[in-house]
User: Fold Glucose-6-phosphate isomerase from Coprococcus comes.
Amino acid sequence: MINWNNLDTLTSFKELSEVERVNLAEVMSGENGAERVKDYSVSMTEDLTYNYAAKAVDDKVLAALAKLAKEAQLTEKYAALYNGEVINTGEKRLVLHQLTRGQLGDKVEADGVDKREFYVKQQQRIADFANKVHAGEITNAAGEKFTTVVQIGIGGSDLGPRAMYLALENWAKKNGTFKMEAKFISNVDPDDAAAVLNSIDVAHSIFVLVSKSGTTLETLTNESFVKDALKNAGLDASKHMIAVTSETSPLAKSDDYLAAFFMDDYIGGRYSSTSAVGGAVLSLAFGPEVFAQFLAGAAKVDEVSKNEDLLKNPAMLDAMIGVYERNVLGYPATAVLPYSQALSRFPAHLQQLDMESNGKSVNRFGEPVDYPTGPVIFGEPGTNGQHSFYQLLHQGTNIIPLQFIGFKNSQIGTDVVIQDSTSQQKLCANVAAQIVAFACGKSDENRNKNFEGGRPSSIIIGKELTPETLGALLAHFENKVMFQGFVWNVNSFDQEGVQLGKVLAKRVLAHETDGALKVYSDLLDI
Ligand SMILES: O=P(O)(O)OC[C@H]1O[C@](O)(CO)[C@@H](O)[C@@H]1O
Assistant:
């Protein structure tokens, strides 16, 4: 039987709080440090490793975390999720994003269909459509090939797919699978849509309207913006647009689109990159085979995440160390720092994934919780971040745990040797240096130049960022966030916190305001 209990009622959580703290600077110094870097490492897939040597944990802390993971029944809860229980209690929905990339457990039936079959069918329909576009069988009205794909969507209908596209753009160009350039319109700021439209040839562009609900104001506004532009160019908008939505949304049966592809209410926006939401744009941009490799990478990590042994389950381990840092050590934030330009928008995606999922103050039954839940997430690619906010990370008054990601090889492969090292070597040297600098610090009589150290980090290391490693990376973080939600006993799959602002904005637009809202409306000339 599964028990959904608050973290502070668990005996093993009290025990964890009493385990002696680790002096990170001490354990990471000298030979001991070298041994830790070798030992505190676990494979995520054959190409990716999670290394947690520079986290403030030792065997005692890890044993206490394993006990907590067991008492919180994390593997059982994961199994309940992929076997189709109603895990999203707020919206009374199943949570099925893992089914888009593999069958992890029982067949899941909902709405009278086998859900795995439903997702696979959508992937096949998308693959077929994308192949026809690439082959010139689906064209614009003049019979010319589409050369650009533009995704219109916001939140999960934008951030994940955009981050994934950017992550693979150069890889696809290098490996001969690049088919079409992709652009993204998300913000309701008219400058977003206008700038994208100014940068493309609309006559040769295909637009993917993505909205699960089919009611998101920003997305519908941008759709009209684009339709106007197509009309002004003398084009029939319905021959340039496809939709990705749920079958129950107002967009599903409209004649306004060349085709419609479906996901459903069991896939949260921020978990939708492996569904039709990511599938359409990525298959059009890189071909369906590349999208399939991306799914295969995610499926591998989903499988590893079933492991009951904490030390052999990187997503669960990462999650538990994060809980220790948040609820025992009291750290408020986590920085995501990819040493990979291709992952430039990955931190923004993780921001939504983590903060929209676990930024909650009530448990899954709607009762207030008495402990901190999700941390603040932010990040930028290294080495750019080093010349920006790392000052606070090294010497500020808050300790911010760090999540580094690094690859041995670059994607494009073009490089130069300057002062005896390549740029790729410089990049990797920097991430290694940062881990040790943060952990060990450096004492100096001048307090201003003193580094206290004791600043924890982990690193995910891969050979190269490929579609498969990207899928694995994505699933690692999705599963980490899911496990943390289980430990905190929150529902990680709804987002009521975004509603109030939407309601008030509607009131402003309808001029139904008073008090402070009225004055702000006047100040902004609405
Ligand atoms: O795909 P939709 O329904 O347009 O929603 C877009 C985004 O809006 C939200 O519901 C909240 O603003 C996100 O969770 C979601 O990713």
Observations:
- The pocket of 6-O-phosphono-beta-D-fructofuranose is lined by residues 154-157, 211-213, 216, 219, 269-270, 356, 495, 498 (CB under 6 Å).
- Residues 99-294 form a domain with the Rossmann fold fold (CATH 3.40.50.10490).
- The first helix runs from residue 11 to 18.
